[in-house]
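Thread: quick sanity check before group meeting

JM: Hey all, I'm pulling together slides for Thursday and realized we never actually wrote out the predicted structure for the chain we discussed last week. Dropping the sequence here so it's in one place. If anyone has concerns about the input, flag it before I start.
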Amino acid sequence: MTGSKTRGLLAFIVLASALAGCGVQESPAENPGNAIEEPTAAIQEREAVIYYTDAELLETVEQSVKLSYSTDEELVKAAVEALRQEAGGNAQALWKPIEITSVGLTDGQVNLDIHIPDEARLGAPGEMLVIETLQKTLFQFEFVQSIDLLVDGDAVESLMGHVDLEHPIKKE
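JM (edit): ok, ran it. Output follows.
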């Protein structure tokens, strides 16, 4: 009889242990390895060259900056914003007074819509440098193949009336 009691007690312990184990669940806080995390884009930093002009509007001036971004489109937006920042030294930011309405990137094409206030309008050499600094700055990125530059939402023939503007401007 003691053998059957021992077997019964042993069966009870095994059954109780199995039932107790079924009810135990770890919460995500107790086991962070099983927690479901939403994917977040990692912020990256990249050194890029931003092109400005000299004070006499004769040539472009290069300055290296670090840009933070998580997508290619954000990198383009950061570069365009850097074009508008004070350059310092002998360099001038021709893009500073130009208002950026929108910046987008679709299939390798940067779509840039701007507004040019009267104080940002320049002669032919300045207009050429505005376009050149934008091209040199954005075409350094391998994923940028073309730029469609719009003024107040329109594909204009010229930014400031002096230089013909292609739609889109293609990387050479």
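AS: nice. The first strand starts at residue 44 and ends at 54. The CA atoms of residues 7 and 67 lie 73 Å apart.
JM: adding both to the slides.
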